[in-house]
Design brief:
The structure is a single chain. By secondary structure, this protein is of the alpha/beta class. The chain has two domains: about 200 residues, FAD/NAD(P)-binding domain (3-Layer(bba) Sandwich); about 210 residues, no CATH class. Helices cover about 25% and strands about 25% of the residues. It has nine helices and 26 strands. Helix 1 packs parallel to helix 3. The two termini are about 25 Å apart.
Length: about 425
């Protein structure tokens, strides 16, 4: 039996940021990682993927991007290298190749069963991320056996797809990126569009993430939200892509390139896909919300007296879905060889044998402080701040939770 005051499960950006803060507080801890440091970035991403945030925004406690392309976007090998270098520079106590089988609660702490033997700790930090499993909607059960079913965690590149066209279900970050890549490879692509967040790559001469950062939008805290925080945590990812050319990819650009847009997938029966008729409404709402954001940026510029430093304000063309959109598609007759379910992700807590879940299987927490004593969670969407699930958000969240953990230890020792 091994013991550490705190155990962190997961050596991605969240786990490493927490480790850095615990080390600064002289709190004995260990980081358990099922594979190598940055394992998910290394093994569960498609070949061409780049970060959606600029390189300058890759910031962790005591460490930041220092290359010669601050406005570029890291490839996945570069992200892995960045995080592994951070782990080494921080002297993080990472134990790799350790798979957690079960966590159970003790009177004063937790027991962590692994394939390398058991550990005990007083404090537990779950930093395994929010994207362990792809969410596949119920209509998938009606997919014909002849049509391949994949998720973005399984997709690697167009050449490895079965012959034929591709239907992509979902039009958030993953969906639009895959649609662009697969269509450019000469395949027929149909995208099923539901709720989405339209976002330009650049506005008034600056990256949209620069605007979100400088206006404080990414630092908004969960406990200051006027609207429903749970809904904010479930919002789709931004329609963004990271490319050397800093291009904007939206539904308009996809449609002009030859991608067919249809409404949200509502059913699959006898090989026929049924689509909602709400495509135009979903697109109009996304346009409206984008324009509200751009207006808030313009207001910030004017209030700050900085209008002369930036290009003039402008607005983008409304999303054009065409005069008619189909409501059904016979997949076999249309030559669709595969369906990619770009419908979101969820954490995998199958190993966590502690009663901390709500009725939907999500961990109950207050800004990362879990309902079970001494347990914390990291890296979830809008966990403490809007940027919580980004690399740039890990440091601030880890600092808050490490301080809470330390104070809790001090109270127990008093």
């Amino acid at each position: 039996m091994k013991f550490a005051t705190a155990i962190i499960i997961g050596a991605g950006q969240s786990g490493l940021a927490m480790s850095r803060h615990l080390s600064a507080l002289s709190i004995d801890h260990v980081v358990l990682e099922r594979g190598e440091v940055a394992n998910s970035w290394l093994t569960e991403r498609w070949d061409s993927l780049r970060l959606l945030t600029p390189n300058w925004q890759s910031r962790l406690p005591g460490y930041a991007y220092a290359g010669d392309d601050p406005d570029g976007f890291m490839t996945m090998p570069e992200v892995v290298c960045f995080l592994q270098q951070y782990s080494r520079s921080s002297c993080a106590p990472v134990v790799t190749g350790v798979r957690v089988a079960q966590v159970r609660q003790l009177d004063k702490g937790y027991q962590v069963e692994t394939d390398q033997g058991p550990w005990r700790c007083r404090k537990l930090v779950i930093a395994t991320g929010a994207c362990n499993l792809a969410t596949i909607p119920s209509p998938a059960a009606g997919l014909p056996a002849r049509v391949a079913s994949l998720t973005p965690l399984q997709y690697k590149n167009p050449a490895l797809l079965p012959d034929g066209g591709v239907m992509i279900v979902g039009a958030s970050a993953s969906g639009i990126q895959l649609a662009r890549e697969i269509q450019a490879a000469g395949r027929r692509v149909v995208v099923c569009v539901g709720e989405h967040v339209r976002m330009p790559r650049t506005y008034r001469g600056r990256d949209i993430q620069w605007w979100m950062d400088v206006t404080g939008a990414m630092d908004v805290r969960y406990d200051t939200m006027v609207e429903d925080i749970e809904r904010a945590r479930r919002l789709p990812s931004l329609q963004l892509i990271g490319t050397p050319e800093r291009v904007t990819v939206d539904l308009n650009s996809l449609r002009k390139a030859g991608v067919e847009l249809v409404g949200r997938l509502v059913g699959l029966c006898d090989g026929k896909a049924q689509f909602s008729g709400s495509l135009a409404n979903h697109c109009a709402l996304a346009d409206l919300k984008m324009n509200r954001l751009l207006t808030s940026i313009d207001d910030w510029v004017n209030t700050s007296g900085l209008a002369r430093q930036f290009a003039p304000p402008h607005r983008f063309e409304p999303t054009d879905v065409g005069p008619e959109t189909r409501l059904s598609l016979d997949l076999i007759r249309a030559g669709i060889g595969s369906v990619i379910w770009a419908t979101g992700y969820r954490p995998n807590y199958s190993w966590l044998n502690v009663p901390v879940f709500d009725r939907k299987g999500r961990i109950r927490h207050d800004g990362g402080i879990v309902s079970a004593p001494g347990m914390y969670v990291m890296g979830l969407p809008f966990m403490r701040r809007r940027k919580s699930s980004f690399i740039d958000g890990a440091g601030a969240d880890a600092g808050d939770l490490a301080a809470h953990l330390s104070q809790n230890l001090n109270r127990a020792a008093a």
